[in-house]
Amino acid sequence: MKRYYSTGIKTMKNFIRSRIASFGHAFRGLWYVLRTQQNAWIHAALTAMVVVLGLWLALPARDWAVLALTIAMVWMAETLNTSIEAVVDLASPTHHPLAKVGKDVGAAAVLIVAIVAVVVGLLILGPPLWARIAPWVW
Fold first, then answer.
1. Mean pLDDT of 21-30
2. Do residues 77 and 110 touch, judged by C-beta distance below 8 A?
3. Which residues 6+ apart lie within 8 Å of 39 measured at CB?
4. Is the pLDDT of residue 8 over 80?
5. CA atoms of 14 and 7, how far apart (whole Å)
6. pLDDT category, 78, cuts 50, 70, 90?
7. d(CA 70, CA 116)
8. pLDDT band at residue 15, thresholds of 50, 70 and 90?
9. Is the CATH number 3.20.20.70 carried by domain 38-137?
């Protein structure tokens, strides 16, 4: 019985170590995206602006949930696009028409999500922002 128990603890320790390592890999991937992709800096700046604006407007929880999901979609698209670009560059170091298609389609995914994010941002932030600034304008 003791042998089984110690094996279970060892397995649990390995599981925990591998989860910690997984977070490390993920953060290195995110850092790579931030270091190498100019659009990621734009996403980061806009993410920060939306969060600050949302705090200033005291948005309700439901609006925060929609904004959080929308922000996550943009970041997911950007990171997946960067991943696609890296894999395509590895698989096809020379120019190839299908490599271009892969990269262009990945970029299109980011564009689609970014456009939707702007629309969601306007729908959620627009009315309370207008209510706040309208007295100053008129």
1. 94
2. yes
3. 78, 110
4. no
5. 10
6. very high
7. 8
8. confident
9. no
C-alpha distances (whole Å) from 80 to each of 6, 64, 73, 74 are: 40, 24, 10, 10
Written as one letter, the residue type at 26 is A
- Residue range 111-130: mean pLDDT, rounded: 98
Distance between CA atoms of residues 82 and 40, nearest Å: 10
Report d(CA 41, CA 78) in Å as an integer: 11
Residue 71 to residues 11, 49, 84: CA-CA distances in angstroms?
36, 12, 20
Q: Which stretch of 8-12, 46-50, 78-82, 124-128 has the lowest confidence by average pLDDT?
A: 8-12
Q: What would the DSSP string read from start to end of 66-133? A: HHHHHHHHHHHHHHHHHHHHHHHHHH-SS--HHHHHHHHHHHHHHHHHHHHHHHHHHHHHHHHHHHHH
